[in-house]
Fold each of these.
Amino acid sequence: MSDIALSERTSSNHTVRYALQDIGTVTKRNLIRTRRIPEALFFSSLQPIMFVLLFRYVFGGAIPVQGTTYVNYLMPGIFVQTMCFGAISTSIGLAEDLQTGLLERFRALPMSRSAVLGGRTSADVVRNIFVILLMTLVGVLVGFRPAGTIATYIAACLVMLLFSYALMWGFALIGLSAPNAEVAQLMSFPILFPLTFASTAFVPVQSMPGWLQVFAKNQPVSVTVDAVRSLMVGGTYHDPSSIWKAIVWSVGIFLVLAPLAIRKYRKV
Amino acid sequence: MSEILAVEARGLTKTFSKGDVKALDGFDLDVPVGQVVGLLGPNGAGKTTAVRILSTILAADGGTARIMGFDVAKQAGDVRKTIGLAGQFATVDEYLTGFENLDMVGHLCHLPSTSIRPRATELLEQFGLADAADRPVSTYSGGMRRRLDLAAALVARPPVLFLDEPTTGLDPQSRLGLWDVIEALVAGGTTVLLTTQYLEEADRLANRVVVINAGKVIANGTPADLKADLGATVLEVTVGDHDQALRSAELLKDLSSKVVHVDGDSVEITVEEGPSVAAEAIRRLDALSIPILGLSLHEPSLDDVFLALTGQKTEVDTEALTESTKRRGRKAKETS
Ligand SMILES: Nc1ncnc2c1ncn2[C@@H]1O[C@H](COP(=O)(O)OP(=O)(O)OP(=O)(O)O)[C@@H](O)[C@H]1O
Ligand SMILES: [Mg+2]
């Protein structure tokens, strides 16, 4: 009896440490995969660069914005859009692991139950950090001049990383529900397009019809873009309340979607 | 307390909603500690489903199962620390190297980090993958993947091992190598539950064979027991042609309590007293001047057992399969 009690106590002491260690192991594995398929990273980085160039040089001239240049207005939108599209890799990654049977192997191992989803999302956060650095560079090359300090810039990055992290749990749910990776990707687009385009990311909402403005102003992507813009651009766009709203949205999305994704993972 | 069993399944049932298949239908299994039990059955019999339930991957609809006393449903964590699993289809990460795959599994099993590298290296060596250790698995052949998958199941030296068709897709040399590995593990005290399509494999490795069909156990015993059930010996007499064989079958029918097979120009009967029946058979055939071109006495193979129990041969043995359908066809003709 006392043996059992003892082993239970030590195991509960170890639970958190093991969970973190397992998340680390799965994260490392996912990052190795990313490194082994450089084409995927290359082309998924190319897409936001194309968006920057298109909006900066093709549509930008036709979109009037107040208080700053269009490229300064645009970049926070591009950042958040890129974060959102980056979450597709969460759904594809999990759908692939499900398809190849690797999740079966994981389920028969004494690893922490949070490790697969935790490791997937952590690796995708690392990837997003890389993408932020890359997009900052691209932005600066086409005339992006962030206002504020390094600290506010980092704060802006943290706000969008938090948002993308919350979103990934929704995409984890998609990945675990899809029959395969291609379908997981297809299922992601109808969610991402309205969220990123019917938003404040690329155009001021004043140009949209009234009914759409209500949605476009308050939906989480817009709120996050506003928060990032408040921190990176300031001036007319200074709006501290959007930062809190963005954080509340992110935490709310996480609290709803993460348990759903975890429940789905336990059932597949 | 009674002797603990390594694997104990009682009345497991599982129905897949897709297609309404009753994959397991009251499945029972006992594997004593330190033994090798071979789970044998035709395609779709429920072998993989049983292994998946026992390894906590799948939840059963009904019944209970314990691994080393741990309940698979309620103590899944403890079960996972006790078992190693190599599933029917190799589940290794394509983009990781062989070494990285084993290293990952070692970490996920919470082995002390200093022991993981030597263990991975040792296993890669043992499974003939040392040269390919640092290549991504996507460059491996099917058999190499299979071996890596088996190595991954062994990383944590689990006391109970589930191997679902471990040698399917291996060349004869790798198969023999794997048999040696399994025998060495068993000598070291590991318990193994092995599903297989190869009767030869069960014969060589298993202490006990459990035959399953349509989700139910239909036979259970040592390979020798199962063969004994069929009769001690098979007498095969080869005569001049098929017509003579049919006549001989008629003549010899009463010597065996079991069915008599006619196959081409030979007759096969299962008998209790081999030598004396053989002598009697020679006398009877000689009396009618049916020429005896060949005569042999041999033990029934597990193939014969399997055929008798399920009415079908194993899938891999296609040559034997056509042969057996031929036999059954002839037998039907004969009895009509
Ligand atoms: N995920 C699933 N969904 C629906 N049906 C399934 C599923 N898995 C197995 N089955 C069905 O359950 C039955 C038993 O399958 P199982 O894989 O256990 O057979 P098996 O004995 O391992 O066969 P094999 O020798 O071909 O590997 C089959 O009829 C199969 O079609
Ligand atoms: Mg199977």
Note: The two ends of chain A are 35 Å apart (CA to CA).
Amino acid sequence: MELLSGADMLIRSLQDEGIEYIYGYPGGAALHIYDALFRQDKVKHILVRHEQAAVHMADGYARATGKPGTVLVTSGPGATNTITGIATAFMDSIPMVVLCGQVASTLIGEDAFQETDMIGVSRPVVKHNLSVRHPEEIPEVIRKAYYIASTGRPGPVVVDIPKDMTTPNERFEYAFPKKVKLRSYNPAIRGHAGQIKKAVDMLLAARRPIIYAGGGVILGKASDQLTELVRMLGYPITNTLMGIGCYPATDKQHLGWLGMHGTYESNMAMHHSDLILCVGARFDDRVTNATEKFCPGARIVHIDIDPASISKTIDADVPIVGPVDAVLKEMIALVRESKARPDAEALSAWWKQIEEWRAFHGMRYENNPEVIKPQEVIETLWRLTNGDAFVASDVGQHQMFAAQYYKFDKPNRWINSGGLGTMGFGLPAAMGVKLTHPDDEVLCVTGEGSIQMNIQELSTCKQYNLPVKIINLNNQALGMVKQWQDMNYESRHSQSYMESLPDFIKLAEAYGHVGVRIDRKEDLEPKLKEVLAMKDKLVFVDIYVDRFEHVYPMQVARGSMKDMWLSKTERV
Amino acid sequence: MRRIISVLLENEPGALSRVVGLFSQRNYNIETLTVAPTEDSTLSRLTVTTTGSDKVIEQITKQLNKLIEVVKLVDLTEGAHIERELMLVKLKATGSQRAEIKRTVDIFRGQIVDVTSSVYTVQLAGDSDKLDGFIQAVGTAGVLEVVRSGVSGIARGEKVLSL
Ligand SMILES: Cc1ncc(C[n+]2csc(CCOP(=O)(O)OP(=O)(O)O)c2C)c(N)n1
Ligand SMILES: [Mg+2]
């Protein structure tokens, strides 16, 4: 057997785990590990400019590839800088492992230089965290960390590594464990057969059914099964912001996404349904609106890998705990075998009603011959990229417009911070995608507020040649905040203006990239075409859009799903 | 409703803080909490008493089960069970009070485990109501110090909580 130092064992374990990229930033407590990284070339390290960005990069990678991301940082400030990124991944159940240096175990508890209790600090925002107590444990700890991060309901796992665990002068026998077994952790591998049968019977007997799918379908790689089931049944489907792409958005059975800024037809169909099949979603408050007014006539079947997501906010009539792909597969087989068929008359009446709703609103906005509308920017991009780009978004109005007007037909292409709503997520997430998808179009849709939260990463993009296209929907305001102030605070715009914006063109150029400004409507399409033609360049496109636009539809606070504003003046 | 949830937990550093953290993070109540290693040194047994609606209790058990270090758990209040708490009380005991206290201790089947000329230290075990009842019976005026262990519980009959 080979003798390796703790640091070498760590890197070897990452190799054996199949890790391609680490995103990170060095510092004292991690230096033995960085030295071990230097002496090999299998695992590639991407040096970011701020640790938060390393986590978002790992996150973007994980969302686009379905594989766990990896982060390496030093103790103290390096570790605490990752927290926002970890919390972002936690809220959206993204698999990742964050390796943090720590002061030597002999110094822990003494307020040593750059000592932070990372296990304690991260505890509420991780799926699990582990600390290394003996160098020999390193391969096992690493194996466990990835296993926990990527199985069951995925999530971030932090590993705390005191510096003396990685010293070069102590060597140990290296063996990478073949299997992990945790007696206290056994995620479900299939759903309860009786419950699935019951669900299928209810589904086939429903008169006004709707499928409500979430991010779990994408995380569980079950888009194909979902699509098959939905097409077989001919039922309408809506999905959450996190579920975008789990079912083709351009398909006519798809009603768009639901909830606070969901489509009129989705929210109406949910409210009036008699059966909701929820697949890998969690009845989040941005979906349900007031829970006591939620879909009064609907019975609910809820499939989720996490039992704690079921009946948390909305009670399920038929709970099914299991991986969505396996459960859907069984449902498909049962529907096929069953003699029962959906009531054709009821279904066609239901579709007729839905089409009326769709015709009443659909997605529309008021165009203006003078100013560029943020929605039209997204529509144009969708057309110019054939609906096939990866779109990483920041947080705000631009995020909602991107989600509404870019029609995703495939999973893993819409990359956004849904649960935590982290401004600053977009650019590093786009970078994580671009790194592993060099030939695909990767857009970062952002706002002048959000982009400035991780703008330093333009430097990382230069170093690693990451030609993402930054689409800055510049409304010269923290637009989403301003919209709420318009609607709820009589337009008192407290701190929602960004004064003294930088010259983004010069800024992009200073970092060695290309900057393009678009402020005339007629320039929009031709200039965007030029931008997209610059395949190997990062282009920062600063687009001056309507400063007064609001995102609609918007659910009325504390109402039911069907209570919405459809424009500044229409309320239903 | 008051519930007694009994948990088998990996006996590892940090495991307890995860359980306690979960309760505060999600705004759940902890009334009492006891924890100690079991005959299997890799496991701790933790008992927590809490109150909440059925929905909240369901979430508490689900969220506890989600913690990687929680091996198994049971809501003892769902079935017949035995509940015990230990209390040590220092009581002012002078003159005629001494005999009176002795009698009350006997009625509650407690023991006087330490004596000075002016103080009795009493040990009492039972369910929480009984301990409350004792304090009421002797009167809070004479109570100098109280220490209670928190509730431990076990199911009645043949049911066992083990791996
Ligand atoms: C880190 C962080 N801080 C604050 C917020 C609250 N917030 C949500 S949207 C928003 C405004 C975003 O402005 P911008 O990026 O310009 O996007 P716009 O809404 O104008 O399109 C703010 C401040 C947040 N989501 N994240
Ligand atoms: Mg803005």
Note: The longest strand of chain A covers residues 96-102.
